[in-house]
């Protein structure tokens, strides 16, 4: 009998994988200069420094009256309105105990030390009376209170979302330096795989993982080169690797990493490069493999559809994110409570497909999908999270349970 293979600890394998992920700054990955709207979802390659203050001048936060109050302890009966300042226009200095009609965003005139919203006033001709107490500096947005000139507003490694683009636009910067996307060559292995549009032969299945992996990579911001289906032969697998490794930063395969004699992926990697990791204590996803083929990183996902998806999210995604230069690449756990019993745990760490409910005391209760099989994609389509159950650990309803939100993993 062959000795039982020692599986690699999930965290140790994950950390090892992350250590192998060279950041684009150290690997001289090319950068691009893009206009802001083209840079959505791209990774900043250099910090953004503001040339200006934002706001660029003290301005009103309200439609109302800009006051020059000489003594906040002894307010005059009323203030005379001596000028009108709209946004985009500048006023002139206002004298003690006079006011300017002012609008949101308009520059605060010299002498003004408080703005009252118009709802807190009564107006009689050119006189404005206050109906509520006021404080020094109220409703004045100060120059530079959002962004200081010469300050770094975003570090390298930020994935540019709409909020970042707006912030960069507010300092008048029209272009940013981002990393060129990572090129990932993908192929699926298996004689049973059938492309959509073709009739299924006996024993055939549709190549559904292609749609998972290509879209997961695209969503992450990678350029995907899809090499299609590679038949179960050592030669075809080697040829596919040689081509994909010469044309991409990373080669990702799916299937053919288990122990059967039709599993040619590992052998091809060992022949052409180096197999660094294989067989991890996780369920689903045990046969996940990592290595190098030429200059390219190799990630071998298992063929079972749920295993491929989950190993992508938990292992490949953090690796690729770090490789893409993202500073925020690791898993983010949330706390919940089990809504189920798990009396027969596996010897591997398990990632269970769960949905979230909020109970009467506002706690997140995790409900289990009944079929946790590695081929059951309905479990993932239904799920909102992956509950993390330590190897060999029984769970009882009501126990604390950490989980990863799919909305985060798929963002
Ligand atoms: N004797 C053993 N058998 C298996 C072991 C083991 O340790 N000993 N491990 C099992 C585990 S765990 C997994 S996960 C799978 C993974 O195997 P492979 O990565 O080699 O994948 P395949 O054998 O090629 O396929 C597995 C399964 O997935 C289907 N598949 C494959 N590619 C696709 C695709 N592109 N789209 C949809 N479905 C796909 C394939 O038809 C198989 O049903 O191995 C276990 N076996
Ligand atoms: O690890 Mo496999 O993913 O159990 O089916």
From TrEMBL:
One of its GO terms (biological process) is Mo-molybdopterin cofactor biosynthetic process. GO terms for cellular component: cytosol. It is an enzyme of class 2 (transferase). Its cofactor is Mg(2+). GO terms for molecular function: metal ion binding; molybdopterin molybdotransferase activity. InterPro entries: MoaB/Mog-like_dom_sf, MoaB/Mog_dom, MoeA-like, MoeA_C_domain_IV, MoeA_C_domain_IV_sf, MoeA_linker/N, MoeA_linker/N_sf. SUPFAM superfamilies: MoeA C-terminal domain-like (SSF63867), MoeA N-terminal region -like (SSF63882), Molybdenum cofactor biosynthesis proteins (SSF53218). SMART domains: MoCF_biosynth. It holds the Pfam family MoeA_C. Residues 185-322 form the MoaB/Mog domain. Catalyzes the insertion of molybdate into adenylated molybdopterin with the concomitant release of AMP. Belongs to the MoeA family. This is Molybdopterin molybdenumtransferase. The lineage of its organism: Bacteria, Pseudomonadati, Pseudomonadota, Betaproteobacteria, Burkholderiales.
